[in-house]
Amino acid sequence: MRPFVFFLALASTTVAQAIDYDPRRPDELRACDDSYYRGRDAEARECYVRLLNGPYNSVTRAEAAWRIGDLQRANRFFREAVRSNQRLIHARVRWARLYLSTHQYADAQKLLGEALELSPNDVYGRLALAQVYADRFDGEAQRLIEALLQEDDGLFEAHLLAARMALEAGRLDDADRSLDRAAKAADSKLPLLELYSARATLDLARGRDSAAMLKDPWVMRALNYNAHYGAVFESLARFEVMRRRYAEATPLLRKAIEVQPTLWSAHADLGANLLRFGEIDAARVHLQKAYEGDPYSPTTVNTLRLLDRVNEIEVTSTRFALPSTATAPAAEVELRLRLNTREAAALQPYVMEIARDSIVAFSRRYGYRPTRPLTVELYPNHDDFAVRVAALPGIGLLGVTFGDLVVMDSPSGRATGDFHWGTTLWHEMAHVFTLSMTDNRIPRWLSEGISVFEEWRTGPTPGVVITPDVIVAMREQRLLPIADLDAGFIRPQYPNQVQVSYAQAGLVCLFIEQRWGFEQLPALVRQFERETTAREAIENTLKVPAETFDREFQAFLQQRYAGVLNRFDEWRRAAQAASKAIEAERWEDAIGAARTAIEIHPEDVADDSAYLLLALASDKSGRRNEAIDALLRYRRLGGWEPAALRQLAGWLVQANRTAEATEVLAAVNYADPLDAVQHRQLGEQWLAAGRPEESLREFQVLLALDSHDPATAHFGMARALRAQGDLVASRRHLLDSLETAPHYKPAQALLLQMIEERKE
User: What is the pTM of this model?
Assistant: First the structure.
């Protein structure tokens, strides 16, 4: 099987490209452009073909080839132009734009770097670079656009880009002002199609119903200029997708392809959107159309390849009742799991348990009952997961929620210890509730904040866990005001700001719980059942101005983290000293340094936690009980590193604390559930503890994981079933064990015992 496409090979496509605002565009091309912009495709194509085959330079022919969709020839002509004159700036910028139009950002950025090295102040090279940053949601785009507009307020494209970024960040008034400035800067010779699209998007962002957008005045202006301009509806749909309103995006995408049937990107977007609702057959139809029109699009090719392997997915479904509460009646929920067939049997019981427990917990805590089936998909190959959610490999996410659908990495999708899959699923299931409660209107910061908060409060590894990056951001006063917190997720201004924003959002929810009570969190979520702003929601729910909220939140952080904020450098030195002492096997020095680090920042259970160092050094110096105490505290605070917890379980068994050991080892299943030895140990320990149902589950999973030696698993299942009183099933598995290993003495002894019992 061929691998997924990581880049877009340049190929034929008729997807509409952006309007060219560069005044250096040759006049002979402008003669064809009017027909192109007005949707007179046959007339425009004839004009561009004449240029392509005429006595024109390589740049002009490249532009003509680009316009008719022959991107391979366009690429070749741009390359010829640059090779013939290494100091060409405009050709490099336009070549970069070609790559940018096909989402090949690295190649585009390389060419723009070369152009700007030759001419650092080239306006249109800098504009193109800003576009690269904007498409990649890099905060550098904002700084670059601001600098360009300070130099020249007449840059129409710069104002459009500023408006787009403001729309994405929810700064609607800023977007409005940028569009006003764009209109003033517009060249009367060029169409205003992109301005009309942006104006329509602003109307949508301000609460206009998506169905009404089909007749929006700005949409009608665009269609009056070009009746085949499907991109106006595609832009609206992409804005809806960006704010997770997938149901609203579907009719807009259908309208886009109705207006412009050859808009292959809209077919691909529609296919991807239908997949979010599990409509696989309908999605395949549109993806196949997109592929027929543009066979080299990586998003289309990758998604179709993933769909071709749909037979590798095993689907299970269950229904269960939710009890009534003071605010909601009893209800029945359907939960579907889609797991890879190679690991479905091993993962199904744990995934089902976490998903079900989260639904019960969040239904009770937030007073909302799911009305549609909920689906959870896990992918053992991270690139499969990435293609499923973004159509391109390589994304750094662990999980994504599309309303009633949760998609995430399987435990086998990453190395052991890289992530806690149970917590990830708990986090994503919280999104199901906050998104559904608000019809996806909830701002990103609040939905993410509640998911992080619920990890800390109710998840499989409860405990408030933040990384050193967050402490640094607190010390450097880089946390954002509540009204602007979404920007930290969308366009980060410094490295790791997205991760910092996750933690800040969780801490905001923790602050609300402790200052006003948990019940104010569901109340805050319900503010977004209608269109509102973060500022209005905070003020209406908590009855304090947003600025007051920000001051009190900062005071809360300063108090809660006073120790590490005031002694941060000392904490880092102590942690580093403990690590170095461990390396040198100076156990007493390591113990002292680790204790100092813990005293300064007792909640640090992230990677290389001082608790882990303290446990190791204590054990090595003969203080096993202190080592156990260190790891028990580490776990209580939210630490979950699988090797450390397995070590703790082993120490507890040796200390005759078997019940605690079993509880610890069982918790490892939600971090690393594919270890056969672990399931065999747990099966025995649950059986010894008189809990045969749990024991049976562990031996069933052992059987699924260890196909080379099934005798032990069958023997364990036989004993667990016997303890439950199911003697028929017990005997069947006992015989299965002996069929695999006829000389397995424990199984022989049990069979003889069962025969004697039957005689009696």
Answer: 0.88
